Amino acid sequence: MNKTISNYIQAHKQDILDQWIDRTKEEADERVIRLVSDRVFNSTSKEFIDLIISNFKGTNEEYTERLTDFAEKVVRLGWPLTFVTKGLHTFNLIVFEGMQKEGLVNAENQMDMVYEFDRWSTPMNNEIVSVYSSTWERTVSLQKIALQELSAPLIPVFEGITVMPLVGTIDTERAKQIMENLLKGAVKHRSEVVLIDITGVPVVDTMVAHHIIQAADAVRLIGAKCMLVGIRPEIAQTIVNLGIDLNQFTTKNNLKKGIEAALELTNKKIVSMEGAK
Amino acid sequence: MDIQSCVTIINEWDIVAARQLGRNVAKELGFGTVDQARITTAISELARNIYLYAGKGQICIDKLYDGGKAGLRINAVDSGPGIKEIRQVMEDGFSTSGGLGAGLPGVKRLMDEFEIDSSPGQGTQIKATKWLR
């Protein structure tokens, strides 16, 4: 970092910060302004400027650590990346213009100064983008794992009767898991009847239907019976419109009816206790 | 007056995004739950076709206002391999991917109007409209 520039920034820190906040607020997306209070905005802005300044004060490690912290905070606040990169650009502009006014940048050294600025800000820009995107990547992959965890559980409810409640969109990945869990679980719990509950599946298109039919066929091969429950009226209509044949299935409109039918199939009955209050 | 919004289909999750967009527009226009389900299912089929066969394309949802009628049009466009025998794919049970083969004829039944334009190597364009009754 060029001495002249760093000296200038350190001497005019407060001034630069005020100007930066004003300008950024003017240019910032409404989304950002609405999202955060003035206090958060100002303190985060200050942190951002401090971060830029620490770039040429502290050691490299300190700087990277602070940058990671900051990126994570910005991601949590939901600020767009352009806000940060634009912020850096604005910062450069303010410093450059300020230095021009003081005559530190003149016609003679202008080109050198521009290069100097570029040498300093490009790596920082890259660093911010890469930290920012890797923070996002981590968030997404964590969510993916969380999603997988609630993917397709198989729940034994009575001897010989198991339920698989499906919630949310079924994609190829999940369809594979459903099939695996269904077969593994049906064998493990010695199921005679397996109920697949699709109450929580928002859309049943041909692909989803195809996967369910395949799963049911496989369940039949291992000697259990598969029942499809939780078919909402609108889903029933779309299935008919699509012309999907679910004739080889027993279907019920809710889990309760399904369990009743399953009990009957396994020769079981639930009776109320006599004399109970 | 037509208002349009689009979703680019590149991966499987974009199908969900397209569906969500369709459902929101359908809700806004005042479609009932059954028609909402029909529209989202149709979008799901068309988007999945793009994902499976063309790899990349676009689903656009238009709001239509024609006289006193309001409607929703799904516009599915891709520049994939195209369809050789349109008559064949509109038959129930025909599939090149081992699926159920109910996708396109199903969409036609789910919606009120259906238009398909495709030739090999030229990509495919499908327009499917549902009118609000």
UniProtKB/TrEMBL annotation, chain A:
**Lineage: superkingdom:** Bacteria
What PROSITE patterns would the database entry show? STAS
Domain STAS as annotated: residue spans: 151-262
**KW Phosphoprotein (keyword) present:** yes
Q: Name one GO molecular function term.
A: oxygen binding
Q: Which CDD domains match?
A: RsbR_N-like (cd19413), STAS_RsbR_RsbS_like (cd07041)
- Quote the Gene3D superfamilies the UniProt record gives: Globins, STAS domain
Q: Which UniProt keywords apply?
A: Phosphoprotein
Q: Does the keyword Cell membrane apply?
A: no
Q: Enumerate the Pfam families for this protein.
A: Rsbr_N, STAS
Q: What is this protein called?
A: STAS domain-containing protein
What is the species of this protein?
Mesobacillus subterraneus
TrEMBL record, chain B:
Concerning InterPro entries, the annotation shows: HATPase_C_sf (IPR036890), HATPase_dom (IPR003594)
| One of the Pfam families matching this protein, by short name | HATPase_c
Which residue ranges does the record assign to the Histidine kinase/HSP90-like ATPase domain?
A: 35-129
Q: What is this protein called?
A: Anti-sigma regulatory factor
What organism does the record attribute this protein to?
Mesobacillus subterraneus
